[in-house]
Design brief:
The chain has 205 residues and is an alpha+beta fold. It contains five helices and nine strands, in the order αβββααββαββαββ. It is elongated and about 85 Å long. 23% of the residues are buried.
């Protein structure tokens, strides 16, 4: 669901500032349910540890993984809008409030208390979440943010010229070579085996 801000101006210069303020305001609700958010919690927008092709929409690293002892939350930049980011952030804040990884019963108790629904590994914002989160989002106003489309992420180029198969057509001697460095400059290559007068043949793949 997208929240309509009308003609509200962008107040925060960065999306991280917007998200940190959301955490500050959400903590009042978390604390009221008995699950305060640790003060050493940070959030940013970026691809998760599984990379840009991953469908993971958020990730929470625990203080043991941070050089200055913070909960480090990553929100995938393919999340569509403020409500989507805030919903995913809420899921990751449940991990921080729980103090340990996993989606077991103790995590589930926090997630349900703050209005998240669905499978605990793939929660979504329910009406109870919107009842407290939507007013916060409206107060913060639009985020300086635009989602990155999955279909716009170009695949990384692969090295297609390495490991070409070069084989003797007589004795079967075999080598792996790069075409540019070892093959292209020569009109033909003879087998290096002293007792063989065969010719090396390149197998294109």
């Amino acid at each position: 669901m997208q929240i309509d801000f009308g003609n509200m101006p962008v107040i925060y210069e960065t999306r991280e500032a917007w998200l940190m303020e959301f955490i500050s305001k959400a903590n009042y609700y978390f604390t009221g349910k008995g699950y305060p958010i640790p003060i050493n919690t940070r959030v940013t927008v970026g691809f998760t540890s599984n990379g840009m092709k991953s469908r993971d929409i958020g990730e929470c690293f625990f203080p043991a993984a941070s050089t200055d002892g913070h909960y480090e939350i990553l929100l995938n930049p393919t999340n569509e809008n403020e409500a989507a980011l805030a919903s995913v952030l809420t899921h990751e804040l449940c991990h921080a409030a729980n103090g340990k990884p996993g989606h077991r019963r103790d995590f589930g108790a926090i997630a349900r208390a703050v209005g998240l629904e669905g499978k605990l590994t793939e929660t979504y914002a329910g009406k109870d979440w919107y009842s407290w989160a939507a007013p916060i989002i409206m107060e913060l106003g639009p985020m300086p943010y635009g989602a990155i489309r999955h279909d716009a992420i170009a695949p990384r180029p692969t090295k297609g010229t390495f490991g070409l198969k070069l084989e003797c057509n007589s004795c079967g001697w075999l080598a792996r070579v790069t075409r540019t460095k070892y093959v292209d400059p020569h009109p033909f290559l003879t087998c290096p085996v002293p007792t063989c007068d065969g010719e090396l043949v390149l197998e294109d793949k």
